[in-house]
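Researcher: Predict the fold of Aspartokinase.
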Amino acid sequence: MNTHTFSPVSLTVAKFGGTSVADYAAMDRCADIILADPSVRVVVVSASSGVTNLLVALSAGVAENDKRLALLGQIAAIQYQILDALGRPAEVAATLDQLLTEMDKHSASLAHLPGEPARVDALLALGEQCSSLLFAELLRQRGEPARARDVREVMRTDSHHGRATPQLQELAQLAQGRWAVGLNAERIVTQGFIGADADGNTTTLGRGGSDFSAALLAEALGADNLAIWTDVDGIYSCDPRLVSGARPIPELSFDEAAEMATFGAKVLHPATILPAVRSGCAVFVGCSRSPELGGTWIRNQTELNPVYRAVSLRRNQTLLTVHSLNMLHAQGFLAELFAILARHRISVDLITTSEVSVALTLDSTGSDSGGRELLTPALLEELGQMCRVEVETGLALVAVIGNRIATTAGVGKRVFEVLENHNVRMICQGASAHNLCFLVDGSEVDPVVQELHGRLLEQV
Ligand code: ADP
Ligand code: ASP
Ligand code: MG
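Model: Structure tokens for Aspartokinase follow.
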């Protein structure tokens, strides 16, 4: 087939996560997947496994030069393994060296000025720039016209470093104007996770943001399918690393998948589903090591809609309780509280109220790339001026996800039977038909989730 003249009947954006592009062999398996599907015209890659964590460590400011150079050495070793397997083509080697030099420069300057947000983003973005450079070369060596393109040409965001918000209209215009035309001629290999503001400054979308990038590009380009290739063969009924009885789910609705991603199923970044819903793009999740196992399809409608579909969990939750006697019979207290949270770019997750207090957890969607805390001293100070604030940490959020949860008799009984011997710090149910959520102490969450999954999803 001559790919230069091929017009795909459908367009797929495929994203490959860190383990899928960890080394040459892993990248080569991804190439098999891409070459087998002519509809895949845009390939979004994460940084090779481990690289972003190393860059985050550097971004915190490593003052001891030996230690800093050792971290840079670890990154270089990961990237050079791939470059060597590619036969060290001169042009690619030169570009890779430039990227590694930039890492050195940014990390050296952060050693004296740790956490400076714009520079942290410039540093973190280099991981994806390395992996996309190498992966495009691998595709070309496999005989496929492919070009690494800088996602900052199209991924316009605001200037909020570490947790930037995409500017959807600009993104769509730029992607249509700059990328849509050439898609038939050569596949585009590009970076997840990173973007640029209107002044061209590099931004990042938050940890795990490559899924979100791929979904945004799929929406902007009007793709039919978004394929998320990772290290598991689909979305499971619970994290398979925690629950051995967890099973892959062949088909999920957008609503269920969005709830799972929001409430901690790390396999999808929490914001991934929304662009797909807006654009009606079907989402597939599969394993790049074993594509033959199939995976999960996420669509608008599904054939089966069971009451219990999955259990997910989010660790390290912070509960904020605000008390104020002014709340009693008063109007506007919640509006004021939410306005403060919004000014600090925090969206509320779970919430319960009593006459004089409100307890809430913070939505960690798009958690900051550099690992900065959502709950800043500035926020606490502002809240402290209007009410008494209590902060509890070390909690875990558990979500039972499914359908008709709020209108099916007996759900509460089945869930809370499991919790007989555990203290439940907070319960939320009713706003959505798709979830029941509660908070428990972080030290108790593993057995709670395992038992809950066993009772709800393993017993027939
Ligand atoms: P990638 O690097 O490809 O983005 P991630 O590590 O971010 O991959 O996500 C894949 C991991 O998500 C799996 O290895 C698995 O441990 C975890 N995970 C958590 N919950 C689920 C779930 N419900 N189904 C599948 N995987 C899950
Ligand atoms: N490389 C980034 C991270 O590790 C983004 C991603 O992999 O999705 O968070
Ligand atoms: Mg991920």
